[in-house]
Task: structure prediction
Amino acid sequence: MNITLRVWRQRTATDNGRMVTYQVEGISPDMSFLEMLDMLNERLTMAGDDPIAFDDDCREGICGACGLVINGLAHGPKRLVTTCQLHMRSFNDGDVIDVEPFRAEPFTVVRDLVVDRSAFDRIIQAGGYISVNTGSAPDAHATPVPRDDAQDAFDAAACIGCGACVAACPNGSASLFLGAKIDHLGKLPQGQPERHARALAMTARHDHEGFGGCTQIGECEAVCPKGIPLSVISQTNADVLGALSHGGR
Result:
């Protein structure tokens, strides 16, 4: 395969970036998108040019580091996959492919396709944990959890914090990420003592970081590689209202 790649290049966070065009030849359809970028970077390095900076880690769809906007879609054209799981057979020989970083006010571009997603970490630090003293490890199944609650908790906990929901949202909202991180704890008995305070604190941090509000457009759910449902946002709204009715406790 031969493709034309148009990539966002930006040397520093304060520089004005631009799209740079590269001709990439000899691509195997079985390559992942990141392997294709690796091949291009090898050629750029051999030619004495700066390689394209992009984030990656596990390359197994687990860590969420690899987020790219490909032809205007977070993670590219395939549903329920991360960028590292996207293969070049999803494109056609001769295609022109645009590659850009995830864009949102709180996601500062560090260089090229690398963005600072530490705002997500600060949202978690605001309350995405259980801090009550639970004592020693309980026996297995000592605390009964209704099946539906357990399934909902597992589904929400699948969120890998990649930020695709933010990149796809016209409002730049992180409500799907926020909802997943609040809901997977709130569904379990161990998460009940801090449920309302957690929702209030994490939502306040979300807004403080500059993420927009949710208007239920649904673009976040459409691009989420783990299929997190919009229902986690509704549950978060209910928990926030519960927190306000309990005086923030």
